## 1
Amino acid sequence: MAKLFRAVIMGPPGSGKGTISERIAQRFGLTRLSSGDFIRENIAANTDAGVLAKTYIERGLLVPDHVMTRLLLPRLEEMTRHSWLMDGFPRTLAQAEALNSTCDLDLVISLNIPYETLKERLSDRWIHPASGRVYNMGFNPPHVQGRDDISGEPLIQQDDDKPEALVARLRHYKDVAKPIIDLYKSKGILHTFSGTETDRIWPYINSLLSTKIPSTSQTDTQCIPMP
Ligand SMILES: Nc1ccn([C@@H]2O[C@H](COP(=O)(O)OP(=O)(O)OP(=O)(O)O)[C@@H](O)[C@H]2O)c(=O)n1
Ligand SMILES: Nc1nc2c(ncn2[C@@H]2O[C@H](COP(=O)(O)OP(=O)(O)O)[C@@H](O)[C@H]2O)c(=O)[nH]1
């Protein structure tokens, strides 16, 4: 059986994690796992972890590590026979360590995008809150202005995406991401991509993954269930 491939994509808010992971999932047939989507699904389904997570998100806080790991690790254990790409997790060193003890990552993509670019993109980002689908009025506009392509429901702009919130979010990202990036660098699996346009970064990611994904197709690996 082909060896499985597990990757994580990291980057500050607006760096293109969602956009690029969609492309990777389509091009390479990996399952895209988004921690934001998991949280939204759990909130919609009223699970215990979802109810708990909602109390933090409503206050604009990050969901604590133990809640995030409780949400995500069982989902990863269901994925033992799939290749996947994770977006939005780990977001702290503790989450990275929990992931580490669950499975071996093959590769980490880190996006390094200038502040001005992030600010412009986020000021133009519109989302469909129920699904997490993301639009940008210049880059990937919806078919009908202000409406989600699939459901036709209204799109919103998140308060968090306003320029005044961005500085604090970015500072927070830099602080918490640094030890995670150092950890992945020390494991030799970190690949950093810098630039201002997704379409210019994409060919580099595409060619890196084209070399990594087929060359790993030898044996099977599994995520080990957490005790
Ligand atoms: N590991 C994670 C992932 C998500 N969240 C919470 O879930 C929300 C939605 O996550 P996501 O869809 O990843 O969106 P953003 O945080 O807005 O991420 P970005 O701007 O980077 O796309 C976050 O704001 C945060 O409150 C969290 O606490 N911890
Ligand atoms: N103008 C422009 N917008 C982009 C580009 N790449 C992504 N976007 C948009 O920028 C916003 C942030 O991208 P997203 O994938 O949500 O980033 P994430 O927060 O890291 O997941 C979204 O509205 C995207 O549609 C780009 O190259 N140029």
## 2
Amino acid sequence: DDGDDENANNEHADDDHNAATLFSFNSNAIELVGLVNNCPSIFFFLCHRFVFKFNIIANARVFVEKKLFTTGKNQKKKKLKLLQLFAKCILFTDVVIGKIVMSIFEFDGTIGNVHHIYKLFKEVKEFFLKKKARGKKGFCFEGRKNEMTTHGSCKKRSLCELDSCSAQNEPATKKAKVQTCSGETKEEPKATDHHGHANGTKGTNGTNGTESWAIDPNKKESEFRNYATGKRQETVQNFYKEQHTKMTYEVALKKREEHLKFNKCVMTVWDMIHYLDQVVDDSDPDTNLTQIEHAIQTGEAARKVYPGSEYDWFHVTALIHDLGKILAVKDDSKNLKKEPQWCVVGDTFPVGCQFSETNIFYDDFADNPDNRDKRYNTFYGVYSPKCGLNEVVMSWGHDEYMYHVAKTQSTLPEQALYILRFHSFYPWHNKHGYMHLCNDKDLENLKWVKAFQKCDLYSKSQVCPKLEDIVSYYKPLLEKYFPKPVRW
Ligand SMILES: O[C@H]1[C@H](O)[C@@H](O)[C@H](O)[C@@H](O)[C@H]1O
Ligand SMILES: [Fe+2]
């Protein structure tokens, strides 16, 4: 049914209105879980403020237009509807809808049934209405209908305003019930916001009163990842010029082979962490602190956002996520040979297929030999559609290295392994690129990578506790998940 009869049309009009109203505020941490018709993938979104809004919308539009003009006539009505919906999403500047629409296309290459999109919107709306019914303050939904402009007025509110009041009434570890489109209810972890505002008071979330420094309250999210005019601009720019020129499919394979022998040295994770005090990441526009400080900040942010002991794996993962950067350290006694930074840090990307424009400093790939190599410069390159990221060779760096260390020598869960392996894959988890290579498992785990990304990025501030302050919490956990000293 494409809205041919009157009733359906009215219903759609209503739905249109609801969808538009619902998204007239830019909600930050809504998790949408949905099944789309014809689409076997369950898709997840951890939506948050100001996520590369323009880029995503621009990409999505191109995609929609392409589909609209290249698929069969019988689909026309459906597509028109979808396009209208999409127009709305642009109109109401809502990246959330943009992402949904885009995903419906990208996740299975066909156009999902428009009714299911509406259904998804409805569910989210219900979720929020229920939340409101439970007496949460700061919720901003009703009464905004007439205020929709290109920038919904509520959009300016931060997550803290929207959620902190409610969070004060409830423990941060509370489970939220999320309805899936298929009707079943499943338990999802409810995080506090990334400022750790869930319980608001100092020293009550198990972080021994150290939480106030973890995230710089004065730095806005939009001020991070500034690759155009940041303070470290020159260093970062030079870094990516070199990396994007030199990192090829063959280099990645060679480095994989070299470092995955684990024949450097044997040492506990805790001891190895100390080596991070020798690394300052040239690719990072947001911090000039050493990586040991970044590790502590990220770990503590993770504890704050997911404080429950059931998330201890998440805390450990956060602490060690960049431990692979020891590849950039020189210590002959430990066989650490100091790789150049372009082979260790920075955002990661698949090699062996076309470089995506969702990469930062995309233009710098122009001089990469793979860019001219027919084997590697097509959309799929050496890969097949939805082959799964496990099949994909990523640019070599600390993520891939640490993933293999943890996969072979720890008991960390799958989500943790995904975080370790793909946390620097910003073009994917942040800009929605490379979806054509993903399978369902990748999409399931994406939500954890995204949850982690907030702790990783927004915890970068100038204030940091010392290792001694956190040893009592992390050391036993490291021993729990890495039962033996590690072969590096
Ligand atoms: O995960 C991060 C991220 O990708 C940053 O952009 C990069 O500069 C860092 O090296 C990496 O550890
Ligand atoms: Fe990293």
